[in-house]
Amino acid sequence: MLPREALDFILTHVAIGSTVVEFGSGHGSELLAERFRLISFEHDEEWLGVTSSHYIHASIQSNHYSDLEGETGWYDAKTVIDNWPKDIDCVIIDGPPGAIGRTGILSIIDLLREVPIILVDDVDRPQELKLSQTLAEQLDLQTKICEVEKPRQSGTDRRYAILSRGDKI
After folding, report:
1. Measured between alpha carbons, how far is residue 152 from residues 2, 5, 50, 87, 146 in Å?
2. pTM given for the model
């Protein structure tokens, strides 16, 4: 689940009724779906329909960018592109799980160019941190790395990154 601090940031900085896209859904999705037009790209059929979000099933496919990083793949890019909404105010990158990989989102980087806020969860892990840095560089975004008060169950620290245009952070 997205950390409470990340959810609070979104609730504070994204206008009610705005369109939010999330990659990977979780229990926090319901809170977001209550306030925003939430579109959830999800590969795991068991998570489809768990909350009142608008779910789009996108299977995991091999992907050039994922291959370069030794990852399993990413959501089917054609499904993402075909279902990409207009006027997105926030994108949350919290899936697929780290064991699969998230670098494949670079295959749709052009769709992210107008998004004012992108939140990348789990940047305490090297691959997600690298992804957030690559996105910030390629999209010319400001970055803020945020600490989560509650550590992971393993006891390690947890962080997320906020990438934004202008004065959003």
Report:
1. 12, 14, 24, 34, 15
2. 0.95
